Amino acid sequence: MPSGDYPVPVTVTLADLTTFRVGGPVGRLVEATSEAEIVETITAADDGGEPVLVLGGGSNVLADDAGFDGVLVRDARHEIALESEDACGGAAFWVSAGMPWDDVVVRAVSEGWSGIEALSGIPGSTGATPVQNVGAYGQEVGDVVAAVRTWDRQERRIRTLARGELELGYRTSLLKRSLRRDDGWYPTPRFVVLRVMFQMRLATRSEPIRYSELARTLGVEVGDRVDAAEVRAAVLDLRRGKGMVLDAADHDTWSAGSFFTNPILAADTVLPDGAPRFEAGDGHVKTSAAWLIQAAGFAKGFALPGSAAALSSKHALALTNRGGASSADLLALARTVRDGVREAFSITLEPEPLVLSTTL
Length: 360
Ligand SMILES: Cc1cc2nc3c(=O)[nH]c(=O)nc-3n(C[C@H](O)[C@H](O)[C@H](O)COP(=O)(O)OP(=O)(O)OC[C@H]3O[C@@H](n4cnc5c(N)ncnc54)[C@H](O)[C@@H]3O)c2cc1C
What we know:
Bound molecules: flavin-adenine dinucleotide
Oligomer: single chain
Low-confidence stretches: none
């Protein structure tokens, strides 16, 4: 058949759509340009028993080498709609799920909407931010989320969940907990985020700095307020130093950010000598997964022999693809680190990203 007579089918792979850059072919891809298209696509797939994967920037997913035999839906809308702005109530605005998160931070800092400046440089879409209540440098998105408009796949209706209904916690929410392997919706939550409403204070100065490393970098005390643009610049610098800002030329950023969450343990748990200990409320303490990994003998840059997957050379908590790694390589590394930490300290690290293959 002469080439050029027929359109050449292009196979989209999960490696093209995720920041780990691993994963096989996608059954079909829908880049939706309206809320109706998202809902119709998901409903038709649910009715037909076709698996659905709603993906934003693919920055919190470890895909499967076998690919995904279903419909992958991405929200192509990049919209911010201001609802109100006044000194009393601050700024209230809706953002479409597909809007890149860092564009929202840029807009907020330039408009003087305060509360997300420390969340600069986090990759991915706005719709994914309430799912795991993204956080960094002392701020969490849950501090400024007012409501989330969702498609409820179980009740088959639009549901707007107010902040109090979202059950936001450390890297979790009702939305994330509605993603379970055994509930028929997997690998997408029951609640699909369509839009997020934010409520922020009007101020060109940041919220009080809560993170001591950030305060040190800014030359201020914890609790001080600083120009929000300065906070953004300092956070981006700190993040780059840890390989936490996407950069195609830097393999340390071919990752999903932190691969394991920091363990939350009963307050009476005896932690290993020297392990950081933070109050986590409700009779719990939090310790550092990065500390445990290094103390268990996995240094930055650790790799299994012959593997193209390695811990980041800048941050022991990030698993990375050094180029040509497979999902199997990353899973083998994740298992080795998790099992090594468990053997050393009897603490089981839990993965933060969605792991699309069989369980770790
Ligand atoms: C270099 C790097 C640094 C990072 N730093 C941080 C950090 O500092 N703090 C932090 O919290 N995270 C961090 N992450 C993780 C990640 O960027 C965030 O979790 C981000 O919010 C994921 O957005 P996404 O659009 O890429 O989600 P995806 O990876 O596309 O999806 C993640 C999960 O959310 C679901 N999802 C996506 N969109 C929707 C939707 N509209 N409705 C319902 N479910 C949806 C997906 O099905 C999947 O389960 C980092 C990742 C990288 C690669």
